[in-house]
């Protein structure tokens, strides 16, 4: 079995990664090996060889692949005029040079950085904007909350559209409109207009959160994707951590609030130019369709065709699957619901910190907006250490697990180990932050609590996202989509009550409340580690391994 890399989240909503979802499957390659693809509505999409996942006789979802793919080469009904990738085909993104693929990976990370930077960029300018527009702290919170609320709507649009028209047109179109909304925000002179522009900006900024991960899956094969995705995971952390620093120091320097939005417009415009000049199409079904068109033109033979041209899952069918099926799976699967609630809580806590940190560091320690913004950097550094820890500790362990379980798939519960390790650290980080937040205690202590937060969040998300991917296999895209929407709701909602909670309860008891909730949710990965195989065996959507392997996994 090929290695499966960690999923990612766009702060926090990577996508993320996924295994094949039968409704989205239409990637065709050389005979006898038929990879599958799907879109995720989180940061990363994973392309995996369906033949490596499960023996056909044991696969309860084999009919889904047959419905999506049709017959394989050599089977009855196979059409020799179907256009596929030839071995070594230079048009196949997996055969592009490593330098080119790493460049495109960096571009994907840059686009996610752009989107997540914009989510928290106004935080350093809040006081100026309150004075200019005349609104209170609650309305000011909407500047961040509404942008993140756009992440709820965006993935439901850009995922299906990218599979209908390709990655490149969606990147170009969304960034063009997104740039325009940043200009609109900079020119806004009333509360209603800037709030509308923030929400719409979030909707269109969600495109790279969905499709940058898909781009990575388009260009890297499973054996080489792990490092690329792990490094890519840093970009969702970098944006929200650096934005308060930039906007805070701009405020300290006396720069008007409008310039943070002009900065966002310039950043988005630069990314738009980079996309236009250097980012090719990477989505294999679209590339095969173009290849079929070339062959028909060159040969004059109209019988050549690409699978996408006969794809019976049209756009509206994709939209239906995207809007309805994910939530059916979510509320029918206790495993998925529990994981989604836990990840949503963690995600919401991150955006809650944008309201809590100013109370602790600006009001409590008397820092200006620039220095207060620097307090977010340890969260990013902790995330970077978490990625490094994954590469050094967990990735080699997973490689050994593949060898141990070969030729069978590695049980999904193996993925939960780093979530189990991180869950207590995440809870402790809030007690650490809260009870060292007294002005009489050095600011270094609550600041360094951010290291533990960032470190644990990375491991929790990589572990739980990968568990969803491995456990739900051919419906992972739908499972991740539902989880992403729930996380975005928490991310948009938590900042709305954060200020009142930290002011009424004070930072000590507010953090204690959050730490207590984190403790209550910490057993989730432990419970799934022990009982996951049993729950998957009863699941309608999660394929399970053979009985001996299940017993082995439960006993470990």
From TrEMBL:
Keyword tags: Membrane, Transmembrane, Transmembrane helix
Segments for region (Disordered): 50-77
Bias kind Basic and acidic residues: ranges: 51-66
Subcellular location: Membrane
Location of the Major facilitator superfamily (MFS) profile domain: 101-556
Residue ranges crossing the lipid bilayer per the database entry: 102-119, 139-158, 170-188, 194-216, 228-251, 257-279, 335-354, 374-395, 416-435, 441-465, 472-497, 509-528
Pfam family, one: MFS_1
Principal location listed in the UniProt entry: membrane
GO annotations of cellular component type: plasma membrane
Domain of life: Eukaryota
A Gene Ontology molecular function term of the record: transmembrane transporter activity
Cell division among keywords: no
Membrane topology summary: Multi-pass membrane protein
Protein name: Major facilitator superfamily (MFS) profile domain-containing protein
Organism of origin: Cerrena zonata
């Amino acid at each position: 079995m090929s290695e499966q890399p960690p999923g990612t989240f766009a702060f926090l909503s990577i996508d993320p990664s996924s295994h094949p979802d039968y409704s989205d499957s239409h990637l065709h390659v050389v005979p006898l090996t038929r990879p599958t693809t799907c879109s995720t509505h989180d940061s990363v999409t994973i392309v995996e060889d369906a033949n490596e996942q499960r023996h056909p006789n044991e696969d309860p979802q084999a009919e889904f692949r047959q419905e999506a793919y049709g017959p394989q080469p050599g089977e009855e009904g196979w059409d020799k005029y179907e256009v596929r990738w030839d071995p070594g085909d230079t048009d196949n993104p997996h055969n592009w040079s490593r330098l080119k693929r790493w460049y495109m990976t960096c571009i994907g990370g840059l686009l996610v950085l752009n989107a997540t930077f914009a989510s928290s960029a106004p935080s350093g300018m809040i006081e100026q904007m309150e004075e200019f527009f005349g609104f209170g702290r609650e309305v000011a919170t909407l500047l961040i909350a509404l942008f993140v609320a756009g992440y709820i709507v965006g993935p439901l649009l850009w995922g299906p559209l990218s599979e209908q028209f390709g990655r490149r047109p969606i990147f170009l179109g969304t960034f063009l409109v997104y740039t325009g909304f940043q200009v609109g925000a900079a020119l806004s002179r009333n509360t209603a207009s800037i709030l509308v522009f923030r929400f719409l900006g979030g909707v269109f900024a969600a495109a790279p959160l969905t499709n940058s991960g898909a781009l990575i899956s388009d260009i890297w094969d499973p054996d080489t994707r792990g490092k690329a995705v792990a490094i890519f995971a840093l970009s969702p952390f970098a944006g929200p951590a650096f934005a308060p620093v930039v906007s805070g120091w701009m405020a300290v320097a006396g720069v008007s609030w409008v310039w943070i939005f002009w900065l966002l417009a310039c950043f988005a415009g630069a990314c738009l130019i980079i996309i236009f000049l250097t980012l090719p199409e990477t989505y294999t079904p679209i590339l095969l369709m173009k290849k079929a068109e070339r062959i028909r033109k060159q040969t004059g033979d109209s019988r050549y065709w690409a699978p996408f041209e006969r794809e019976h899952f049209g756009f509206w069918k994709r939209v239906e699957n995207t809007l309805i099926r994910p939530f059916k799976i979510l509320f029918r699967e206790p495993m998925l619901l529990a994981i989604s609630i836990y990840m949503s809580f963690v995600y919401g806590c991150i955006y809650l910190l944008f309201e809590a940190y100013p109370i602790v560091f600006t009001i409590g320690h008397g820092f200006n907006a620039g220095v207060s913004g620097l307090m977010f950097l340890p969260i990013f550094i902790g995330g970077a250490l978490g990625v490094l820890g994954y590469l050094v500790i967990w990735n080699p362990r997973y490689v050994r697990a593949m060898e141990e379980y070969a030729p069978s798939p590695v049980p999904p519960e193996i993925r939960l180990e780093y979530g189990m390790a991180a869950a207590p650290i995440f809870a402790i980080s809030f007690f650490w932050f809260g009870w060292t937040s007294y002005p009489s205690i050095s600011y270094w202590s609550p600041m360094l609590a951010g290291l533990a937060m960032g470190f644990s969040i990375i491991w929790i998300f990589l572990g739980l996202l990968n568990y969803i991917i491995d456990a739900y296999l051919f419906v992972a895209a739908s499972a991740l989509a539902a989880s992403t929407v729930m996380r975005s709701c928490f991310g948009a909602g938590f900042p709305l009550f954060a200020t009142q909670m930290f002011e009424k309860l004070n930072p000590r008891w507010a953090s204690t409340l959050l730490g207590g909730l984190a403790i209550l949710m910490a057993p989730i990965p432990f419970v799934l580690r022990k009982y996951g195989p049993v729950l998957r065996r009863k699941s309608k959507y999660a394929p399970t391994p053979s009985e001996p392997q299940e017993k082995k996994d439960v006993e470990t």
